[in-house]
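2024-03-11 09:14:02 DEBUG pipeline.ingest accepted 1 chain
2024-03-11 09:14:02 DEBUG pipeline.ingest length=427
2024-03-11 09:14:03 DEBUG pipeline.predict start
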Amino acid sequence: MTFFANTNPKIRKFKGKSCSVIPKSGLYLINKGNSKYFEGRIRFPFNASGKLISVPIGIFDKDILVEDAIEKWYEIKLWSKKNNKNPKLFGVEELEDVSEKTFKEVSDEWFNDVYKNKVKERTFNDRKNKFNQILRYIGEEKLIADLQRDRKGRQYCSTMLKTLFADAPVQLTRCRQLMGWIFDYAEDEEYIKEDQNPLYKKFQWETGSKRRRSEKTFANTITNNSWGLLPEFLKSVNENECDASKITDLATKTHLLMCIRTGVIARLEWDWYDAEEDQWVIPAEVSGLKNTREQIEGGTCENHIIPSTPEINQLMNKTRKITGWQKYCFPSQGGKNNLHIGEETINDHFKNLGWKDKQSAHQWRSVVTTAGQEHGGFEYEVIDRQLGRKGHLNGTRGHYDRSTLLEKRIELMNWWSKNLIEQGLKI
């Protein structure tokens, strides 16, 4: 339209479907349903062949007024052109490298690394084939960050599911469930912001799921003068009232001390311990490190080092007496040779101890991050490297910064081990 709704009174009276806010600015007002919202449109890359991208700015009156929308849109365009980045990444750059993950990459990762191990092959293939309809609709270039609830993701996903499965309510419910799990996984892996699953509330209401989003991890109870709920949690681990197996108990305590994802703990091998350097060297190709096949084949990722400590050595020596003759430190308790415990074993143990909706295995990384800064005075970057995050490998910095900060990480691990023991962990 040629009508320019560049004042708040004009916008309130506007009854059309859409209009430009300022001539040739790329900022538009969209009137849909009972709400009006601002949307920026620009080609990226910045050339004639660039794809036209729509960037949500905010809901009129509720979130933003026209003068604020104009200012924000110009800020987004300036940032995008200055950094030569997709304008949709504005405001989510703090999400490290994961913010540039596509929905297809994340869903493939979840299907292959998580779901495949939970269901029979026939079920997996059936669900994956049906899910491919969603992937074809969304496309291979759609960023997972674009589907966050606060970026109109909820509206987009709802419309998509109703369009694809209008005549198949059972398939609609099933695919919504799968997508809900994928977005939960994306939150846990920090591919999207916390509490931004675009399907969660709707999914719970329409399917009758009793699942509730967990309260914030008890990391938020940790301050510079308090360890919060940590001592209580460690006490429950020590007491093991759910009577978990010795292997599960040892694996759980190893996870707490090593501060690495449960996928690595589950696959931990005795051969990975370097006695000379007193450290565990995790091969880059181990799926628990979340390196992509392209990164591994391209040689852009390195083995992950976990500096050992006297406390870790004590625990692993105890473990070695039980499983030292096998390949894996924590072998399958089903008695099968050369198979390790499942990735969810530790998480299930937390639930059985009574910490469901309070603390998950992945959320332990938040505890380490918070306590390391509040009590240890360690820089976030040191903790970040030790936890195996890869934000520092992004962009220009990633081409030049190959530091490991190993000496500081050794200091961090020794501090962390001693403090866990002081707060109540028994080996």
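2024-03-11 09:14:41 DEBUG pipeline.report Residues 93-98, 201-215, 392-402 have pLDDT under 50 and may be disordered.
2024-03-11 09:14:41 DEBUG pipeline.predict end
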